[in-house]
Design goal:
The protein is of the alpha+beta class. It folds into 5 domains: about 1-50, no CATH class; about 70-260, Phenylalanyl-trna Synthetase, Chain B, domain 3 (Phenylalanyl-tRNA Synthetase, Chain B, domain 3, 3-Layer(bba) Sandwich); about 270-335, Phenylalanyl-tRNA Synthetase, Chain B, domain 1, CATH 3.30.56; about 360-535, BirA Bifunctional Protein, domain 2 (2-Layer Sandwich), CATH 3.30.930.10; about 550-625, Ferrodoxin-fold anticodon-binding domain (Alpha-Beta Plaits, 2-Layer Sandwich). It is about 30% helix and about 25% strand. It contains 18 helices and 30 strands. The strands form 8 sheets. It has a 7-stranded mixed β-sheet, sandwiched between helices. A 5-stranded mixed β-sheet has the order 3-6-9-10-11. Strands 4, 5, 12, 13 and 14 form a 5-stranded antiparallel β-sheet that branches. Strand 7 (about 150-155) and strand 8 form a beta hairpin. Helix 4 (about 110-125) runs antiparallel to helix 7 and helix 5 packs antiparallel against helix 6. The longest helix has 19 residues, at about 605-625. The termini are far apart.
Length: about 625
């Protein structure tokens, strides 16, 4: 048992059932081939240097009597569908040897046909199901996805209300199978069954997992399907089960062997470079030893120079890249055989880009909470619908190969869509939310915020506070944004020199309509790394003993005027202008709050008027703006 554990086959316990020793093994998610007696036997043979004696599977006799069946498949739900009809069988109790085998795996013997399907599932790791052919209405079977809410009664007489997107098989009138999980009572094998349709399928693992969780229904078949059975093994399993049925239950083959698939599932080649093997493992393993290990795993290796080419059988879906082969060598060679060594090399001192700076994250969190925002935590995975509703392109997002649900299919490239959903679900009149997390594909950390039912000046205050507290100076606001999620005329880009720090503005009305949000939404998204790089250490400047003078000036500008440059120009008009803020936007009118202050005296009205005239002259001359 310890040797099995050493190669990854963790043994839970060894017990005697009906006089036979039964080994209980924990199967990892990446090894569906271990969900079978033969799969485990191959692993034991590999470490023992033995050969596996596989069951002899005879070719099936050509059918003399033909029973018709029409199969309509949905290849998005079932990738491969193999089936055969057997007629004239006799349903009776299984022979003693078969009953003992069924009991040893924790199941209850039912009848010869059902027990054979369960036996082959555990032997070969291929789930299968037998239907009463005469109960299939219209002798037609159609694969489809459930709409949600359909009633289904399983073979064990339990009723279920199906969730959306469960894989179902219907005959002409009703659902007869919850594919990959449970067969239907209405088409199950009964004492008087004479003709059966035997099938084995390769189902969409994400849909099986989702349905299984939604119903709280786990079966041995669903556990295998969630991991992914051998896509090349359905026909072999059908032949094995059909031979046993003909031998134990009698009857004859009454159809050709049907095999519906869109592509061939064949073994494929994968190369291992011995130099790469040494680099990764840190030790040299002789070529002959590596070839022997691959041979023991039935990978049919061929060595040529420094390269070994393996032929990967379809049952080993976990072997996809060169590193997978390296892991196999290390596993079978034995990690305990590796010499003890201390790590070598230089430790990198520079910070890796996709690791967040916890200091800046903590500071941002404090600033946002002080501004009255509540932190949210959302899933990094979103649906295609959310992407399209945000006016973005799914092609620019990373798609998950086997998503748990169609609602969690893509990695998000922005935090804002998730915040829009959160704001929508929050029924408060005024909602202010923020999130700090990673976006893809660059794996950059962002801080995003959204305001619902708040004024622009209140929302903009949070951005100003972030930039001020982080010591970001000389930034420009350019009222142009490439992101379609923002209103094209009421949004801007924040820049320091030529680097984009982030975006802010009103959410596009079309996006609000798509998300069914009536209230105006304001949002911003800032890049943590850009904030950190633009942040300056603040130096102490004595506070003036004289009071500041503050006034608001409203200007009208021609279209496409860069307001960030306007702010900079106003600041540079005089050293007595201490601060300039954009406080409000109404149509084409922009209101700036300007602070005047001297370190030497209190400024009088005449001096303020003189500074104001300089500002008006600068605005008129440089930007063709006028005071409102």
């Amino acid at each position: 048992m310890w040797r099995l554990t050493e190669i990854g086959l963790t043994s839970e316990k060894l017990e005697k059932i009906n006089g036979e020793e039964v080994l209980d093994i924990e199967v990892t998610a990446n090894r569906p081939d271990w969900m079978s007696i033969l799969g485990v036997a191959y692993e034991i043979a590999a470490i023992q240097g033995d050969k596996v004696k596989e069951p002899q599977i005879k070719e099936l006799a050509k059918s003399k009597k033909t029973l018709e069946i029409k199969l309509k498949n949905n290849f998005q739900a079932i990738e491969r569908w193999s089936a055969i009809i057997i007629s004239g069988i006799a349903i009776k109790p299984s022979p003693e040897w078969l009953q003992k085998r069924i009991l040893s795996v924790g199941l209850r013997p039912i009848n010869n046909v059902v027990d054979i399907t369960n036996f082959v599932m555990f032997e070969m790791g291929m789930p299968m199901h037998a239907f009463d052919y005469d109960e299939i209405k219209g002798h037609e079977m159609t694969v489809m996805l459930s709409q949600g809410g359909e009633e289904f009664t399983s073979v064990d007489e339990l009723s279920y209300k199906l969730p959306k997107d469960a894989i179902i098989i219907k005959d002409k009138e009703r659902i007869i199978d919850l594919a990959g999980i449970k067969g239907g009572l209405n088409s199950g094998i009964k004492a008087n069954t004479k003709n059966i349709l035997l099938h084995s399928t390769i189902n969409n693992p994400a849909l099986i997992r989702r349905t299984s969780i939604a119903l709280g229904l786990r079966s041995d078949a669903s556990a295998i399907y969630e991991r992914g059975p051998d896509k090349g093994g359905t026909v072999k399993a059908i032949k094995r089960a059909a031979n046993l049925i003909l031998e134990i239950a009698g009857g004859e083959v009454a159809s050709d062997l049907i095999d519906l698939k869109q592509k061939e599932f064949k073994p494929y080649s994968l190369d291992l470079n011995l130099k790469k093997l040494k680099e990764v493992l840190g030790i040299e393993i002789k070529k002959d030893k590596v070839v022997k290990i691959f041979s023991s795993l039935n990978l049919n290796p061929k060595a040529k120079g420094e390269k070994i080419t393996c032929i990967i059988p379809t049952k080993r879906s976990d072997l996809k890249i060169e590193e997978d082969l390296i892991e196999e060598v290390a596993r079978i060679y034995g990690y305990n055989n590796f010499p003890l060594t201390l790590p070598e090399g230089k430790v990198k001192e520079e910070k890796i880009a996709y690791f967040k700076d916890n200091k800046i994250e903590k500071r941002l969190r404090e600033i946002m909470i002080a501004s009255g925002y509540s932190e949210t935590m959302n899933y990094s995975l979103i649906s295609e619908k959310i992407i399209k509703d945000s006016l973005s392109d799914p092609e620019k997002h990373i798609k998950i190969k086997n998503p748990v649900s169609l609602d969690y299919q893509y990695l998000r490239s922005s935090l804002i869509p998730s915040l829009i959903l959160a704001a929508k679900l929050n029924t408060d009149k005024a909602v202010k939310l923020f999130e700090i997390d990673k976006v893809f594909p660059e794996e950059k950390y962002k801080v995003s915020a959204i305001g619902k039912g708040v004024e622009f000046r209140e929302f903009k205050g949070a951005i100003d506070l972030v930039l001020e507290r982080l010591g970001i100076e000389n930034y420009k606001i350019i009222f142009e944004v490439e992101e379609p999620i923002f209103h094209p005329a009421k949004s801007g880009t924040i820049k320091v020199k030529e680097s984009n720090i982030g975006y802010f503005g009103e959410i596009n009305p079309q996006v609000r309509e798509n998300f069914a949000v009536k209230e105006i939404l304001w949002a911003f998204e800032l890049d943590l790394e850009a904030l950190k790089n633009s942040s300056k250490i603040k130096t102490f400047v004595p506070v003036s003993s004289y009071p500041p003078q503050i006034e608001d000036l409203t200007f009208v500008f021609p279209p496409k005027t860069k307001i960030g440059e306007v702010i900079e120009s106003i600041r540079k008009t005089s050293d007595l202008i201490r601060n300039v803020e954009l406080k409000d936007i109404y149509q084409d009118a922009f209101t700036f709050r300007i602070t005047y202050q001297s370190n030497k005296k209190t400024l009088n009205d005449a001096e303020i008027a003189s500074l104001r005239e300089k500002i008006l002259e600068e605005i008129k001359k440089k930007y063709a703006g006028s005071v409102k």
